[in-house]
Design a protein that fits this description.
Largest sheet of chain A: 7 strands, mixed
Number of helices of chain B: 0
Oligomer: heterodimer
Helix content of chain A: under 10%
Number of strands of chain B: 12
Distance between the termini of chain B: 41 Å
Strand content of chain A: over 45%
Shape of chain B: globular
Number of strands of chain A: 11
Shape of chain A: globular
Radius of gyration of chain A: 13 Å
Distance between the termini of chain A: 37 Å
Strand content of chain B: over 45%
Largest interface: A-B, 28 and 25 residues
Largest sheet of chain B: 6 strands, mixed
């Protein structure tokens, strides 16, 4: 069964450093998403991406965040200068048009 | 804006007990409703869905009915197993004309089933 894969599963970084979280969406999906879950809180929408541009972003997705589809298979989330409050589980998801999203296993980001 | 409220956990049950996890939502229009499950150490998996009022979603013995009059989508299972122990997330989705969607999640309810 096709699945969304994320790497790494756990990333530890120092405050102020840049991190890139990587995702390989399901191959025939055209819509890509990032969500995050701070420990003990709700899963929150960050951004959706289609046709090489952002479709929608939430208030959380400020100038520190960016997304990119660098090639035909990867979808990345970059945090330019990490803060302690960026520590969370980050989920990548993908979907077909007007269909439900399928999620990856998540990357746990710990900022120290 | 949209919001989803689900019962606080953990819910602790013995094997073969009946399960209900309550979920209510606030939204304008007609969102689609979902239950996602997260098993320990794994990602979010779609458990079931309903796209319009009175639809019943079902999978693996779990069921939920989209009740517009009570804005609810309660998850039920007649007889839980130890392997059902996980965190369950209720969510609503808006599908945009261009084809993408945004999910609004509840806080999640942990289910612990003992033998």
């Amino acid at each position: 069964e096709p699945e969304v894969t994320q790497t790494p599963s756990h990333q530890v970084t120092q405050m102020g450093q840049e991190v890139i979280l990587r995702c390989v969406p399901i191959s025939n999906h055209l819509y890509f998403y990032w969500y995050r879950q701070i420990l003990g809180q709700k899963v929150e929408f960050l951004v959706s991406f289609y046709n090489n541009e952002i479709s929608e972003k939430s208030e959380i997705f400020d100038d520190q965040f960016s997304v990119e589809r660098p090639d035909g298979s990867n979808f990345t989330l970059k945090i330019r200068s990490t803060k302690l409050e960026d520590s969370a589980m980050y989920f990548c998801a993908s979907s077909e048009a007007h269909k439900e999203a399928f999620f990856g296993q998540g990357t746990r980001l710990t900022v120290v | 804006g949209d919001s989803v409220t689900q019962m606080e956990g953990p819910v602790t049950l013995s094997e073969e007990a009946f399960l209900t996890i309550n979920c209510t939502y606030t939204a304008t229009g007609y969102p689609s409703l979902f239950w996602y499950v997260q098993y320990p150490g794994e990602g979010l998996q779609l458990l079931l869905k309903a796209t319009k009022a009175d639809d019943k979603g079902s999978n693996k013995g779990f069921e939920a009915t989209y009740r517009k009059e009570t804005t609810s989508f309660h998850l039920e299972k007649g007889s839980v197993q130890v392997s059902d122990s996980a965190v369950y997330f209720c969510a609503l989705s808006r599908f945009m004309n261009s084809g993408y969607s945004t999910l609004t999640f509840g806080k999640g309810t942990m289910l612990l089933v003992s033998p």
